[in-house]
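Hey, quick one: can you model this chain's 3D structure?
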Amino acid sequence: MQPPIIGLTTNRLASTNPLAPNHGVSEAYIQAVSEAGGIPLLIPLGLPERDWDALAGRLDGILLTGGSDIDPARFNGTPHPRVYDVDPQRDALEMALVQRAVERGQPFLGICRGAQAVNVALGGTLYTDIADQVPGALRHDWYPDIPRDYRAHGVTLDPHSRLASILGTTRPQVNSLHHQGLQQIGRGLTVSGHAPDGLVESVELPGHPFGIAVQWHPEWLQDDPAMRALFRAFVEASAREA
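Sure thing. Here's the predicted structure for all 242 residues.
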């Protein structure tokens, strides 16, 4: 059996030359997918919409990566000065990829911004800044000058969830690198995990071959067998659907 091809969504990166913009992702995603047995393939931004479906059809699974904020206009969100680096092209592409994956049973995994993209694509909403909009919230924005593998808090998982079954625990300790979070949950999604302050940390799509999204960054926690198991389960599901 050929290894499944996993498409990784990309972010526009800062460039010293405005005439030479860059797209990319953290190497941690690439390594995590590769170690799990998949072939990572970066999905570029700027593709014409007519090519999106053809591209997605050549992928066995889609990993929606972290990055900058989703435009609040997409979910009638409250504007906030901390919203940064909105990229309409990325928003549009990721919404289309999620909707296609749901409709066609294509495995997908959302991470941090990726979890938010999954939720918004299915009609959900976001807190545009947790610290301002969630009274009593924990600190969730442990960046930029903090190790990305710092375990900021625990997550309580539904013991009957697919995610708990994959991780082999209902109380993972996770890193936390986000200032936005899931508010109203999108169509068809079920909540599978919460932070100690009640903020939603994971959702999944029942009945789908693999539809899971987490608010933390498991690619930076590959010293933890549970987090390696998440990538392995995603890649294995993608191989079955290939």
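One thing worth noting: The mean pLDDT is 96.
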